[in-house]
Amino acid sequence: MTDRLPLMDPSDWTDGQRAVVSSDARAVTIYGSLRSGKTTALMARAIRCARDIDPEETVYVFANTGTGAETRRSMIASHDAAADIVVSTVTAIAAHILRRLGDDDWTLTHPEADQARVGRILEAMGYNDLSESPYDVWRELIVQAANGRDRTVPPSFPLTDEALAEVRTRYDATLDRTRTLDRARLVQRAVEHLERAGESPVRVSHILIDDAENLSPIEVLLLQALGPESVTAAVNPEACVMASLGADSTAVIDWFDSIDDHDRVWLAAAKHTTPILDAARRLIEEESSSSDRATSRGSDTLPEGRVEKFSAPSASAEQDRILGAMQERVEARDGGAVNVAVVAPNQSLRDEIADRCRDSDLAVEVLGRPWHGQETILDVLSYLFVLANPHDDPHLFRVINRPSRGIGRKTQARLREYAAGRDLSAWEAIDRARSEGALSSRARRVLGAFREMVEPLVQHARDASPADVARAVLSDTELLTPVTRGRTREQIEREERVEWFLQDLPASGDIDALRPFLDSIALGFSPTDRTAKIQIATLREVRDVTARLVFVFGLEEGRLPATHAVRRHAFIEQEKRRLAVAISRAESNTVLSWAKSRGTGRRQEPTTRSRFWDLLDPVPTCDGSWESGNDYRASLRTKQASSRASTRPTDEDAAAIEAGRRVEHPKLGAGTVQDVKMDGEKHVATVTFDDRGTKTLNLRYAPLTLLDA
Ligand SMILES: Nc1ncnc2c1ncn2[C@@H]1O[C@H](COP(=O)(O)OP(=O)(O)OP(=O)(O)O)[C@@H](O)[C@H]1O
């Protein structure tokens, strides 16, 4: 081995990691608990494979998600190897195989659109009264069926097996009608193609799979069908977080066990562990690191992490505290790496905290949905999906009235109904309604105008590059209405973001470039530059989170675990594993919290603390004090008393801060206030610090104290 491994100096590898890298077996399984060094060993082995083989051959590394693949790609970005290392997801390679084989008359559905689809089917079947957000459960059952895991409806479920079968049939019919595939069907179709062809159009020499416990059986079939020479998998069976998509470790373990030349390496949990890892491991009661078979990492380089807990009287108080802590870090790092992650129990709470961050001028990266909140970009993308496949109903309905062109909710509902009754996509239904004189004459007119606007764009998309097509969409649809005078700051920022997005799009090629680009979007890859250092994710994307400080909030019954999880034991175990993974993502501290009430506007409902809360004993906080997790206000008072640095300005101080006053910030030092003004609802001060330049600070959070009081 050379000593130029960018991942970590080989002299720091543990014996287990060394064994993984140097094994010559055809199959290698790396077992280990959370943070035991599996990914590091797997990526180092990938580099070794790429150095040892013919430059014509290719090494494939598989991660579970687009974001995960991007992180691993960056880990090996500067490696020196003869052969290519492609880092991807199994679904992405399935899409690639289908396109290479000329099977490309489809687009991928987005999981959120899938959920809405299941919801509409339930409503159409008259199950409007299914309470407790059942869509996830439905989707789960449907996807499990697609993965060959047919399970019967749990007893607490308000529907029979027959009704579920009907939902599945209707779900399949919508996919066919709209020429869309969900992820399970995409992989299934690639497997069928490979079985028929008997040979893969993609040449794969070595396959390395990270987080292999999250592979579904059908994904394992696809990897087998690729016929690799050697396979390596990193597995932690206790940390499977994608069970709801039919994943678990058995299929991959069975596959590897069937290979004669098979090395199994156990990476021990570090002897010198940290409270964070202890807490995470206690949650999932891991078994795989028993000391007799373990080789110790015994490293003292591991971070000294801590777990803190707090409760807040209300959801907004909980958010205030998280935001305050983030704001402090952002200011302290002065624009450098901040590296904070916030894990929300569900999408709506994720979006809420992301919006609060933006309101406080904190740049965030939303995992799994990088353009969250950037509506114009999401609209352009939806138009591109429609141009690649006009039958793609979910995307078509997103843009049919954007910008407003008189196709309101009622017209859309009538169009849906008309299309469903005739088994047509909405695109086909618009044409049929015109020829049959169906729907109202006004509806025919506005819908017809929409189709006439989109049709030339569909033609244009066949020959033009994705970047050109996106520009044509922007001008023809008038999504970005040109503003000649008096643009607001928001408008300028919006236009800038759209321009950056356009610059990231492929500038050459035709529909054959557009389709793979859209696949990568649907699969969660992001072409944008990730400069924000605050990651926001839901528990679903928790595997892709890594940060020094991780907040996991909303530990309340019905949220974490989610309501549907409460119904079935298996779901609860899964949620617990997600929480354990979330806790283990922090390199420094993890902060867990719950709010005693939550709701929208005035409708605040009392909540119940999560059943997981008490499983996590309080551990010492950074300053050595203990937080019982019982009272947020009491803990805040203690912190205020003990540390001036973490004190927010008192109301009197905040009111007295005005131009000319001398102030002090715990991290930025002393400075002079230049200006104080209201920016929307925010009270902002511009301060020139003696040593750190001029900064704009939100007075709600910035811990400024008056020096000349
Ligand atoms: N030999 C080592 N000595 C010290 N630190 C290490 C060693 N190997 C890995 N690490 C560090 O430990 C952390 C976890 O490593 P890694 O991501 O490889 O573990 P993992 O088992 O894949 O974790 P998980 O399954 O929880 O994602 C990383 O910060 C990594 O840099």
UniProtKB/TrEMBL annotation:
Instruction: Write the Enzyme Commission number(s) for this entry.
Output: 5.6.2.4
Catalytic activity annotation:
ATP + H2O = ADP + phosphate + H(+); Couples ATP hydrolysis with the unwinding of duplex DNA by translocating in the 3'-5' direction
Where is the UvrD-like helicase C-terminal domain positioned along the sequence?
Answer: 274-544
Please indicate if the UniProt record lists Hydrolase as a keyword: yes
What EC class does the entry list?
A: isomerase
Checking SUPFAM superfamilies in the record gives: P-loop containing nucleoside triphosphate hydrolases
Binding sites annotated in the UniProt record for ATP:
G32, S33, L34, R35, S36, G37, K38, T39
Q: Which biological process terms from the Gene Ontology are attached to this UniProt entry?
A: recombinational repair
Matching InterPro entries, A to Z? DExx_box_DNA_helicase_dom_sf, DNA_helicase_UvrD-like_C, DNA_helicase_UvrD/REP, P-loop_NTPase, UvrD-like_ATP-bd
Name listed for the protein in its UniProt record: DNA 3'-5' helicase
| Source taxon at top rank | Bacteria
Lineage, top ranks: Bacteria, Pseudomonadati, Rhodothermota, Rhodothermia, Rhodothermales
Region (Disordered) location: 285-318
Q: Which residues form the UvrD-like helicase ATP-binding domain?
A: 11-284
Q: Which PROSITE patterns match?
A: UVRD_HELICASE_ATP_BIND, UVRD_HELICASE_CTER
Q: Which GO terms describe its molecular function?
A: 3'-5' DNA helicase activity; ATP binding; ATP hydrolysis activity; DNA binding
